[in-house]
TrEMBL record:
The protein's required cofactors: [4Fe-4S] cluster
Protein name according to UniProt: Adenosine 5'-phosphosulfate reductase
Functional pathway: Sulfur metabolism; hydrogen sulfide biosynthesis; sulfite from sulfate
Organism: Gordonia malaquae NBRC 108250
Enzyme Commission no: 1.8.4.10
CC terms in the record's Gene Ontology section: cytoplasm
Record: active site: 251
Taxonomic lineage of the native organism: Bacteria, Bacillati, Actinomycetota, Actinomycetes, Mycobacteriales
């Protein structure tokens, strides 16, 4: 596991010095047109590896290893991506022990480089700077400091990132494209699982024996930081346990 404080530069990549934001935007548009709206997850990941080589990261929230498993199977030529897939995990300091355990299990099962990104301040340092339990007084600012800012710095050297978001997860994700340019972070964003239904997702887990965070079986269908995640009541929206009782529904990573 590679621990990365976001204040330090990430591993150098081969991002062309002359490549501009407009170039990356054009790559995203061309990829979307080439593959079309019905591209499979495997096709999207193969295109990602062919297009970006080692210059992309896979975002892993460690609710499960579905995206990593699909990528591992789709990208068979690991030399094309520098020998190992790169998976990024945002270690906010507030995760459930089960989530950290899933992270460690995933690293042991798959041949990948796991980049464990931490914020500039520890939880204790943040408490001293802005007051205790910022997640309760200003959850948006807490997410910004512990997720958005470190992610933006960690993605800066890369040309693309791959996420596991799906359209059925929330109204805010209902129109998530398969390939787009991410204005918030300044690189191409690929969502290979965007079109997957809950049934397709579960069928893949069952068929491939994919690692899943044990909290899922305990009734947590959407897992974030421990202080901001509750178990939804029967019949409630799966994401209703995230920032329960607040209008907040997203942490800011997938705002675009």
């Amino acid at each position: 596991m590679t621990d990365l404080d976001f204040a330090r530069p990430a591993e150098e990549t081969a991002r062309p010095a002359e490549e501009t934001i407009d170039d990356l935007r054009a790559i995203a548009e061309a990829g979307a047109a080439q593959l079309g709206p019905d591209a499979t997850a495997s096709e999207l990941l193969a295109w990602t590896a062919e297009t970006f080589g080692p210059d992309f990261l896979i975002a892993a929230n460690m609710q499960d290893a579905v995206l990593i498993d699909v990528a591992d199977k789709a990208i068979t030529d690991k030399d094309a991506v520098g020998g190992k897939l790169k998976a990024l995990f945002l270690d906010t300091g507030y995760h459930f022990a089960e989530t950290l355990g899933t992270r460690d299990a995933v690293e042991s099962v798959y041949n990948l480089e796991l980049i464990n990104v931490t914020p500039e301040q520890t939880v204790e340092q943040q408490d001293e700077l802005v007051g205790r339990n910022l997640f309760a007084s200003d959850p948006g600012e807490c997410c910004r400091l512990r997720k958005v800012v470190p992610l933006k710095a960690s993605l800066a050297p890369y040309r693309a990132w791959v996420t596991g978001i799906r359209r059925v997860e929330a109204p805010t994700r209902a129109n998530a494209p398969l390939i787009s340019f991410d204005d918030a972070f300044g690189l191409v964003k690929i969502n290979p699982l965007a079109a997957w239904t809950d049934e397709e997702f579960q069928n893949y887990i069952d068929a491939n024996g994919v690692l899943v965070n044990p909290l899922v079986d305990e009734g947590y269908p959407s897992i974030g930081c421990e202080p901001c995640t509750l178990k939804p009541k029967a019949g409630e929206d799966p994401r209703s346990g995230r920032w329960a009782g607040r209008a907040k529904t997203e942490c800011g990573l997938h705002a675009s």
